[in-house]
Specification:
The protein is an alpha+beta fold. About 35% of the residues lie in helices and about 20% in strands.
Length: about 425
């Protein structure tokens, strides 16, 4: 069944199928493809038959800037190709018996839902007539004598042989397709801009440390938790073993990237981090100083600084202060207000010198857990990093020096769907 108005009556079934695919082993590690699949599915059931433009997907799903040019940037076509391969893989294995088949026809961005056709059931045997007397013979339908038809038998045998050969060929082609897909995915993950940006973190033998925030809370999950207030709360009430979903997904994204770069990372939670650790290797901090308290004792950002409003309508809210605003820029950037769903957040990407010579610290942090996730995803995408290097004036032969960047993050239904680079500052080492 193609995408029609009939889908509105089956919205829950179709979205349920999308949820099943997203949770599958095939797509569970492909966060960006899951986001794309959900977007296409939502469009399909909400706007049946309405065309989707490459530009629309680029800006609304992947956070590309408003000047995105599909003619010169093939990133969306690549992602769509990867998603088609994932769907093919899913329905060849985990979803082989699913009743709903999700497809994206080649050359189109419109997702379709098709009900899998069921095989015709075997015809039932004729029922015995209940009125047949016991001592009378049962009359069965006459059966025509079987005729010998050697040409038909030969043709059937030949067709069977051709079918077997076709299945073997398809199997070999699918195996090659999987190999190409894996190589292609690896190639996409290690594009030149990404390698250039991360070169200083993979050039040594030591694994950089990824330090994720896990703030100190008080209370219980059953009754509600809040951030620890040291001036009022005792240390015996502290819960420091919770972290945000954005930090979890961020660490996962970094792990995938460094796997493709063939370099290890070590992961440590912020509450167990010490200053002695900071002198040993390069550091990647995931989360703001408001939650990643270890950052407060280390070199941090100087141009874009996390700060809570002391007064005014946003008093107590965490924002990012723009210390030296350029003409036309705001001096403070706040996320969506606490009384409304989070639709906009801000985050920083800052590279600063480490405590010991030759080491560096990369800070990836938002005012919320989703802003932090967006900051990490930004530096794990080749197109985004390419834009950042261009704004920094870094050429192919240059090392990436200390800098600070401010990002605006668009959030939809608890997922960061768009990231815009709105300000960049370089700084002396």
């Amino acid at each position: 069944m193609s995408v029609t108005a009939f889908q509105f009556a089956h919205r829950d079934r179709y979205i349920g199928q999308i949820d099943k695919i997203v949770r599958s082993q095939t797509l569970r590690k492909a966060e960006s493809l899951c986001r794309l699949l959900r977007y296409l599915a939502e469009h399909a059931v909400s706007h049946p038959g309405t065309p989707l433009k490459e530009y629309q997907i680029a800006t609304e799903v992947f956070g590309r800037p408003q000047n995105f040019d599909p003619q010169s940037d093939s990133a969306i076509r690549v992602q769509m190709g990867r998603l088609r391969l994932k769907l093919l893989d899913y329905y060849s294995h985990e979803g082989a018996n699913d009743l709903i088949v999700v497809e994206i026809p080649p050359g189109s961005y419109l997702l379709t839902f098709n009900d899998r056709e069921q095989g015709d059931s075997a015809s039932p045997a004729p029922a015995l007539p209940h009125s047949t007397p016991i001592n009378q013979p049962l009359l069965l339908p006459a059966v025509a004598p079987r005729r010998k038809n050697r040409p038909w038998m030969l043709a059937t045998g030949a067709l069977s042989l051709l079918l077997i050969m076709a299945l073997v060929t398809a199997g070999l082609l699918y195996s090659d397709l999987n190999s190409v897909r894996k190589k292609s995915a690896s190639a996409i993950a290690v594009q030149p801009a990404l390698r250039h940006f991360w070169a200083q973190f993979v050039e040594g033998k030591d694994a950089p440390w990824v330090v994720f925030s896990n703030a100190a809370f008080v209370g219980r999950p059953e009754t509600g938790m809040r951030y620890l207030n040291p001036s009022k709360d005792g240390s015996d009430l502290i819960l420091d073993y919770y972290t945000g979903v954005g930090e979890v997904l961020a660490v996962h994204e970094l792990d995938k990237l460094f796997t493709d770069l063939k370099h290890p990372i070590d992961v440590k939670r912020g509450s167990l981090f010490t200053l002695d650790d900071a002198k040993k290797t390069d550091l990647i901090f995931v989360g703001s100083p408001a939650e990643n308290l270890a950052l407060s004792d280390l070199p941090g950002s100087q141009e874009f600084v996390f700060k809570r409003a002391a007064s005014g309508p946003r008093a107590g809210d965490l924002g990012i202060a723009n210390i030296h605003p350029e003409p036309g820029q705001d001096s403070m950037f706040y996320p969506s207000g606490p009384s409304q769903p989070l639709a906009e957040d801000y985050a920083i990407v800052a590279l600063v010198p480490g405590l010991s010579s030759g080491h560096r610290i990369l800070i990836l942090a938002g005012t919320s857990t989703l802003g932090t996730q967006a900051a990490v995803e930004y530096v794990c995408q080749d197109d985004a990093v390419k834009e950042l290097l261009r704004r920094l004036g870094v050429h192919d032969s240059d090392n990436v020096g200390p800098f600070e960047a401010l990002l605006r993050v668009k959030v939809t239904r608890g997922v960061p769907v768009g990231t815009e680079l709105i300000a960049v500052r370089t700084r002396l080492k």
